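Hey,

Quick one before I head out. I ran the complex with adenosine-5'-triphosphate overnight. Inputs first:
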Amino acid sequence: MFLARSLSGRLLLLTIIIVMMVEILVFLPSVARFRQDFLLERLQMAQIASLALLAADDEMVEAALEKELLANAGVSTIVLRRDSARQLILRTPLESPVATTYNLRDATAIDLVADALIALIRTERRVVRVIGEPILNAGEVIEITLNEPELCRAIRAYSQRVLILSLIISAATGLLVFLICRRLIVRPIEGVVESITSFQKDPERGPIAARQNSGLREIARAEIALGEMQTHVRSSLKQKTKLAELGVAVAKISHDLRNMLATAQLMADRLEGSKDPTVAKVGPKLIGSIDRAVNLCVSTMKHGKADETPPEARQVALQGLVNEVSSAVFTEDGSIELRNDIGENSVATVDPEHLFRILSNLTRNAHQAMESAGKGDCVHITAAGAGDEIELIIRDNGPGMPARAIEHIFQPFVGSVARGGSGLGLAIASDLAKANGGVLDLVSSTTEGTVFRLTLPS
Ligand SMILES: Nc1ncnc2c1ncn2[C@@H]1O[C@H](COP(=O)(O)OP(=O)(O)OP(=O)(O)O)[C@@H](O)[C@H]1O
Ligand SMILES: [Mg+2]
């Protein structure tokens, strides 16, 4: 079964079958020839035996001699007709009456083949007459009778020898063809197939088809075309990945930009037409926000590619930073508040810009959820140091996250259920935490509220 399925196995089987068929075609004339030679030899021996009669006085020999002559020639009777008048006759009694006559003088090739094939399977004991021409023009016609089983046995033995020889020849040829084809065709094809499958497994890093120097033009062409195609596919894949990364980066950046500009807008709205003394206080915050937006734009233009600016870690006082977040995200009407319970001495070693983005995403989410559900009024942030890490707990008493958002948490674009939300906020926050050597995870989210934990190096 395995043989018939593989290319090399099929080649082996096919070669054996074809060689066997050729052997059969050769066998038919050769077995006919063998039978004819067998009979002609008997005729010649009979002719020689009959010549003994010429030496006898009245062309008669003793019965004992006659029997010996016939036995030597392997026949039962001999009749040699020298001319229409004279004939020499030797005979012993026949086993049975003559069943049929084979006339070798006018037998066609088809007759000879057919008679030989029938002899191959004949089992009954028969006596047959054979007629032929005497050699050296020693007479007109020679006729013998003989026991057919002898002939059949000889033909069968001959066929057996031919069969064994044919089997050996076809097995040897098959093996030879198999080995040659395997080296010349199958191996190179296997190489091409291997290259295709390993490339398919990992198109970005898998090996590219190399020329095996199989010497076959067609396979060499396939190898070259495959190699070119793989190189081409790989380069366009790289290009696509880069573009996709760029797309994600641009989306991330514009996402945060949008938030920052929203803040700026909020402040600007308040500034507009106000003679309030708070203007003096709000002004610098507005400038700070706009600065951040500008910085992001600048870095987008500078890189034009996938990576975020690498974090510039330094010691950051957490209390102050959370206060900044609070005033950027939370309005001062006080309906929803941010309770900053972080100790004065709590510090983390992070990029302050990044931490600001992480916390504003988390608190903005909580704020938006509580505002739209009309449930909850407080986001509570605490910090606790443990070894060389510090854990920030961001807890709200809002409605809790929807199941879909929990299922796809930290995956870009899929987790959002908020109208107008892009589903990037948490993904960005998580990425930024990782980039700063920290972890952001969701501790719990129930109808009682949501708790996130941000672990950072302290
Ligand atoms: N504290 C929270 N309480 C309730 N739901 C939350 C909270 N934080 C996140 N969610 C839910 O998780 C979803 C995903 O938040 P994420 O910040 O990733 O995207 P978004 O807020 O929808 O869009 P944006 O990209 O503008 O931030 C939100 O749509 C919201 O439904
Ligand atoms: Mg959000």
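The chain has two domains: 2-176, 311-458.

Talk tomorrow,
K.
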